[in-house]
Amino acid sequence: MSRLFEELDYRPTPIGALVLRRRREARLGVDVLEIKLGDEHLMSDLFTASEIALAELGLAACEGEGLDVVVGGLGLGYTAKAALDEPRTGALIVVEYLEAVIDWHRTGLLPLGEGLTGDARCRLVEGDFFAMARGRDGFDPEAPGRLFDAILLDIDHSPDALLDARSESFYQPEGLTRLAAHLKPGGIFGLWSDEKTDDAFTERLAGVFAEAWAEPVTFHNPLQDRPFTQTVYLARKARV
């Protein structure tokens, strides 16, 4: 029988206490893996549809083969795995701020870790995604200034619900413009949000990118026994 609750790891970090835990969800008869940062629930493997959709929708919008992809935020690894499941993905960099999360994948503590670290196309990079987005060198420490076909971001809860102040300016026009500089012509920026579509943010994206749209992702919430909707925002850089 599964334990009702097990703390798998605890780490203090610059932005709060980070906890990986497994608990038994008795109502559903399943074990649930969760990551918490302080009082914030970062991710649960009970709800992964929109994290997977971020990669599927973002890469479906990309053109060509041998796609160079960045995922901002490793978490439990579902967005990264979905990116690698796309056969057109040629190379993937996953930028993660918290060293512990990378450790959990490299040591096999998380179930998707072996598949990510064992794929030659995938590289886990410890770094501050938002600082990299602001800087000229970008997201690949081994190739400063490298451009990408897709940059997919799942860190904050939404553009208005931030984990900490590091990302406050990122979602404004200047921050989005700097992010766009790291995309190839025609490249795609994808953003996960825990909230329903915010038309004002879609318009903000459209002010920076050549195209912008939102894709609602609706799935069944078994805890509440009702549908739940999150959002994937997508934006395309001008092709020329």
Spell the H/E element sequence: EEEEHEHEHHEHEHEHEE
CATH architecture name of the largest domain: 3-Layer(aba) Sandwich
Largest beta-sheet characterization: 7 strands, mixed
Average pLDDT confidence is 95
Radius of gyration: 17 Å
* Beta-strand fraction estimate: 35-45%
Specify the oligomeric state: single chain
- Spans where pLDDT lies below 50 across 5 or more residues: none
What's the arrangement of strands in the largest beta sheet? 7-6-5-8-9-11-10
CATH superfamily of the largest domain: Vaccinia Virus protein VP39
User: Which word captures the global form?
Assistant: globular
CATH topology of the largest domain: Rossmann fold
Number of domains: 2
